[in-house]
UniProtKB/TrEMBL annotation:
Start and end residues of each Protein kinase domain: 1-292
Domain of life: Eukaryota
EC top class, as a word: transferase
A GO CC annotation given for this chain: nucleus
UniProt record similarity statement: Belongs to the protein kinase superfamily. CMGC Ser/Thr protein kinase family. Lammer subfamily.
Keyword terms: ATP-binding, Kinase, Nucleotide-binding, Serine/threonine-protein kinase, Transferase
EC number, as in UniProt: 2.7.12.1
GO MF term list: ATP binding; protein serine/threonine kinase activity; protein serine/threonine/tyrosine kinase activity
Official protein name in the record: dual-specificity kinase
Enzymatic reactions: L-tyrosyl-[protein] + ATP = O-phospho-L-tyrosyl-[protein] + ADP + H(+); L-seryl-[protein] + ATP = O-phospho-L-seryl-[protein] + ADP + H(+); L-threonyl-[protein] + ATP = O-phospho-L-threonyl-[protein] + ADP + H(+)
Length: 292
């Protein structure tokens, strides 16, 4: 069903319960083994406090097979990223994004109420509950072919992958979050807490509305420049508290060292082509009504 650096996820048949399940098989490497045991603790903690629906994937069981930690989950559908990819990165309808956003915020609120921070929210870690979809005519391509547009039959989603989840009272000095969804306080070495999840949610919702990641970068200074381009200058109180390692990103006190510090002209162009957040919203709405 999926594969990553940690190992792979297989669809399996549970002969006792007579249902399909998903089993995450973790590679027999110490750091992945330790992360899997942390994930099991988090999943059990989430399940123990479940009231109604948390919007988090349910653990069924776990076992150790030849030093491979195997975690048994309820079987869910594809990720939101899988759907974007399948539709050639066409955006979801705004009404559907609203439903996803509502559920996502409820799930994050549930975790935060338990003093847990996910730290790795992204479309790949949000799964649809059902694999069922409906196919509709999409946009015509340059060759005048009409591509079928796939939409989920149900908007129900659940969060997965709690291997990087942390309690709020733990030490928060490490780098967390996948790059495109990483909050500025993490880049600046300020430490992080609940707000880093909310930053990721914002990035996810824009991606679902536009079809592409907002901050497509792999370099810290360029990432900060993109943030300023979209949202305006970084708050001075954050810059004043930035770690020593982050001082190189600034000049003249609180001014970002941009474009002087850019690694290439391509990097400068990548930042320049971004629009202010309000403009991104306006472009999306115009495109949405034009296409859909």
């Amino acid at each position: 069903m999926g594969e990553g650096t940690f190992g792979r996820v297989l669809e399996c048949w549970d002969r006792q319960t007579r249902e399909y399940v998903a089993i995450k098989i973790v590679r027999s490497i110490r750091k992945y083994h330790d992360a899997a045991m942390i994930e099991i603790d988090i999943l059990q903690h989430l399940a123990k406090n479940e009231k109604g629906t948390s919007g988090c994937v349910q653990i069924r069981n776990w076992f150790d097979f030849r030093n491979h930690i195997c975690i048994v989950f309820e079987k869910l559908g594809p990720s939101l990223f899988d759907f974007l990819k399948r539709n050639k990165y066409s955006p979801f309808p705004v009404g559907l994004v609203r439903e996803f956003g509502h559920q996502l915020l409820e799930s994050v609120a549930y975790m935060h109420d338990l003093h847990l921070i996910h730290t790795d929210l992204k479309p790949e870690n949000i799964l649809l509950v059902s694999s069922e979809c409906v196919k509709l005519p999409g946009c015509k391509s340059s060759s005048d072919e009409t591509h079928l547009w796939c939409l989920p039959k149900s908007s129900a989603i659940k969060l997965i992958d709690f291997g990087s989840t942390a309690f709020d009272n733990q030490n928060h000095s490490s780098i967390v979050s996948t790059r495109h969804y990483r909050a500025p306080e993490i880049i600046l070495g300020l430490g992080w807490s609940y707000p880093c999840d909310l930053w990721s949610v914002g990035c996810i919702l824009i991606e679902l509305c536009t079809g592409g990641a907002l901050f497509q970068t792999h370099e810290n200074l360029e990432h900060l420049a993109m943030m300023e381009r979209v949202l305006g200058p970084l708050p001075e109180h954050m810059i004043r508290r930035a770690s020593r390692g982050s001082e190189k990103y600034f000049r003249s006190g609180s001014r970002l060292n941009w474009p002087e510090g850019a690694v290439s002209r391509e990097s400068i162009r990548a930042v320049k082509k971004l629009d202010r957040l309000k403009r991104v919203r306006d472009i999306f709405l115009q495109t949405y009504w034009k296409v859909y």
